[in-house]
Design brief:
Number of helices: 7
Helix content: 25-40%
Structural class: alpha+beta
Order of helices and strands: EEHEHHEHEHEHH
Strand order of the largest sheet: 3-4-6-5
Number of domains: 1
CATH topology: Muramoyl-pentapeptide Carboxypeptidase, domain 2
Oligomer: single chain
Shape: globular
């Protein structure tokens, strides 16, 4: 397998856009209008299609009774503020593990969502989203609705981000199903698609 990432014009925009420490968020994103993820949490936004698919999944699960959206779309300025605050409060090592550099955050695409269990207090940076109960039921169904867990355990060297059980990314179908079946991150999927198109 080639080790370089395929990042040609076909993948610079759209649901498969790759944003990470190497590839910044294109300034043209998000391409679709941003809408509230859930009426009760109107300040948290995603692209219209991603929000619609998330709500369809939550409706199937009855998920909004136990799960809350913690963070969706972020502007460059908001990502900068989160980065700066985390550096001041948590230090550089923690921040580099759990917070993307401004300009390199998937949240700037409108396609990423952090989810957490409802509770009196929810950690904004690392919300609780365990591998059991309603959270695991969400994971079991998410690929059919176009979502992947973006930063799985064991793939930290590939993604450049620590394991984040709460961070999900809309890539659409059938891509989410193929990536889940094969255990691929978005970086690895880009390599696979690049080889297929070579």
């Amino acid at each position: 397998m080639r080790t370089e990432l395929f990042h040609g014009p076909a993948f610079e925009l759209g649901d498969l856009v790759l944003v990470n420490g190497t590839f910044p968020c294109p300034p043209e994103l998000p391409q679709e209008p941003l809408v509230p993820v859930h009426p009760a949490d109107g300040g948290i936004l995603m692209t219209r299609r991603a929000a619609a698919m998330l709500n369809a999944l939550m409706e199937e699960l009855g998920g909004w009774a136990a799960i809350i959206p913690v963070s969706g779309w972020r502007s460059q300025a908001e990502q900068q503020a989160i980065w700066d605050d985390s550096m001041a409060e948590n230090g550089e090592e923690f921040t580099r593990k759990f917070v993307a550099r401004p300009g390199h955050s998937e949240h700037q695409t409108g396609l990423a969502i952090d989810l957490g269990l409802r509770g009196e207090e929810v950690d904004f940076i690392r919300p609780e989203f365990p591998y059991e109960g309603i959270c695991q039921a969400f994971r079991a169904r998410m690929a059919r609705y176009g979502f992947i867990q973006r930063y799985p355990a064991g793939k930290e060297r590939v993604t450049g981000i620590a394991h984040e059980p709460w961070h999900f990314r809309y890539v659409g179908t059938p891509h989410a199903q193929l990536m889940t079946e094969r255990g691929l991150t978005l970086e690895e999927y880009h390599v696979l698609l690049g080889e297929a198109g070579a």
